[in-house]
Amino acid sequence: MNDGCPEYRVTDRLSRRSLLKVGTAGFAGLSLPTILRAAESQGHVPRAKHVIFLHQFGGPSHIDTFDMKPDAPDGIRGEFKPIASHQPGIMLTEHLPRFAKTIGKFAQVRSVHHRMKNHNSATYYSLTGHTPPLDDIRLRDTQELYPAYGSTVAKLKPVDDPAIPTFMSFPHILRDGSVTPGQTASFLGKPFDPFFVGQDPAAPDFRLPELSLPSSLPLARLDDRRNLLRIIDTQSELLEWSGTARGIDAFYNRALTMLASPKVKQAFDLSNEPDKLRDAYGRTTYGQSCLLARRLIETGVRFVTVYYSNTIGGRGKGGWDTHGDNFNQLKDGLLPITDQTVPTLIDDLQSRGLLDETLIVWMGEFGRSPKISNTAKFGANGRDHWPQCYTVLFAGGGITPGAIYGSSDRIGAYPASDPVSPDDIAATMFWALGIDPATEVYDTLRRPLPIAAGKPISQIFS
């Protein structure tokens, strides 16, 4: 096969409609290998060259956004009214009016589910596509756990230009008590860690710091690690950025990247963008982070992860974890920021001819409970953690615009059709990039481990 995928994935891509078109008479003269060859001739040609992974930490309420249940009983349907979108038959919350105009450019998967009810374990699952060993807030990063998606991509499909990072992430480190695992390269090794940026892209002085060289030391002589580190040690601004480095070698490589790639440094200078476009994205941490993601993709970075956790202005200080005051947190902060930023990102990529080659994935670690909760701990009108069913959005990268895969039941509690796991989401991202999800990597004990245990959701791709 041209794409290197196993035969069972080929049969998955032979759609029910295609099989029906063959007809009973047609099958009489077709052997299984012939059917497989027919499927292969219709096979998926990967169009995605980049991924922008937008992770919504805390768990967005699917029932108050993209999978509303206006006919559900009181105490479930919530306070928001659905509005019509530009895609016939698709309704969104009234607080996503711009998204309603853009939703036809997305594919929706409405039947994602798993069993992890704590942030650290559920987020690890959503950042790696692998089931955590336990569902516990105390789950911590270890070399036994799987790497972030971008680290796997950096290992298996690095960018051709060694001066450009394959994987970058910003602007938060996710944590619920302890740091959430799944944000680094884990057993793949420090060279595949993300180039992590912990500064706020919305800050007026945001930029990639310079590494100044003595006039007596040309770039070509920086093959002496100790000499380079001595220079770094004298530059306080660069040292501040080095706080997130995962070891000397990791930071050494990043320092060389900064030196060797003026394109990367220029990408960090958001002042080069017109004020009108920066305003369109929103002068929030999330808005300017998504603008930075587009600039990095344009530069050639393969995989960019943007974490929506804390916000600037309005409500939603803890991200999407709306146990209490769910509706006010959504309408006063989380949804307006999302409605401004994400459609602008999609339109901006499309206007630059980058959307078809860039897969955008918008998801959290779970959804929120259909039943509205009122507790002494969190207060009234909240929704709790709900991994049993939630929605994930895809755009660009060869998806079928407007596709909907899977469905939830009448109150948004459980999948009603075509259940999907985070393992399948992971397989879909790798498959869209042309990486076989069955590819194996080796852990610290040299055990071969598949990068994804699920199957690609090929039905949402053209």
From TrEMBL:
It holds the Pfam family DUF1501. It comes from the Bacteria. It comes from Singulisphaera acidiphila (strain ATCC BAA-1392 / DSM 18658 / VKM B-2454 / MOB10). SUPFAM superfamilies: Alkaline phosphatase-like. This is DUF1501 domain-containing protein. InterPro entries: Alkaline_phosphatase_core_sf, DUF1501, TAT_signal.
